[in-house]
Amino acid sequence: MAADVLITGCLIAAAVVAGVTGRPVRRRLAALSVRARRRRPAPIRAAAGLGGLAVAVVVGGWPGLVVGCAVAIALDRLLRRLEPAEVRARRLREVADLPLAADLMAAGLRAGAPVDRAAAAVAEAIGGPLGERLVRVARSLRLGAEPEEAWVHVRGVAGAERMARAAVRSSASGAALAGSFVRLADDLRADRAVATEAAARRAGVLIVLPLGLCFLPAFILAGLVPVIVAVLGDVL
C-alpha cells in the first residue's frame, strides 16, 4: 500500500510538472500563430496519461483501468484550458502597454510622422510583446499592405481592436487618427480603473467565507464548549 501511494505521488508530481512547463509552450510563444496555440501539446497528453495511470494504480483491476481512462480524458481537457504562466504574463504586459502605445502613436502622428514610422518608433520605445506586434504592423504598411491586413497583427490584444478599427477608418475616410488614439488611451485607462475597483470589491466578498471558517473553531471552543461542559456537569 505504501509503495502504491509513493508511486501515485511521483506520477501526479510528474503530471503537474509536465502540464505546467514544457518546450511546446515556448515554441507557441515564438510562433504566435492560432494553429500552434490550438495544437494539442505533447506535455499535456503526457500529464493526462500520468494522472490516469496514477488513478488506475490506486484503484486497481478493471475498474481502475476504466476510471483511469476517464481521469486521463478529463485531465487532458482541463489542462488544455489552463493558461500557462508565460502566456498570461505576455498577455498582461500587452494590455498594460497598450494605453502608452496609443499615446505615443498619437504624439508621433501629430509630429508629422507617417503611420508606419510612428508604429516602428513606438515599437522600439515600448519593446515587449506589444512592440513585436507593432513592428509587424509597421513592416506590413511599408510593404504596401492594406490597413486591414497590417493592423490585424494587434487584434489579439484586448482593447487593440479599437486601435485597428480607428486606423482602418482613418485610412478610408481621412479622419484624424491622433485624436482617436488619445481617446482610446483615455478609455483604456478608465476601463482598467473600473476593472481594478471591481476586482477589489470581489476580493472583499470572496474573503468572507475563509475568515468565517477561521473564526468558527474559536467560536465553538470559546462559546459553545464551556456551555456544553457546564450543562453536562450539572446533569451528571
From TrEMBL:
<keyword id="KW-0812">Transmembrane</keyword>
<dbReference type="Pfam" id="PF00482">
    <property type="entry name" value="T2SSF"/>
</dbReference>
<feature type="domain" description="Type II secretion system protein GspF">
    <location>
        <begin position="102"/>
        <end position="222"/>
    </location>
</feature>
<protein>
    <recommendedName>
        <fullName>Type II secretion system protein GspF domain-containing protein</fullName>
    </recommendedName>
</protein>
<keyword id="KW-0472">Membrane</keyword>
<dbReference type="InterPro" id="IPR018076">
    <property type="entry name" value="T2SS_GspF_dom"/>
</dbReference>
<dbReference type="GO" id="GO:0005886">
    <property type="term" value="C:plasma membrane"/>
</dbReference>
<keyword id="KW-1003">Cell membrane</keyword>
<feature type="transmembrane region" description="Helical">
    <location>
        <begin position="205"/>
        <end position="232"/>
    </location>
</feature>
<feature type="transmembrane region" description="Helical">
    <location>
        <begin position="46"/>
        <end position="75"/>
    </location>
</feature>
<keyword id="KW-1133">Transmembrane helix</keyword>
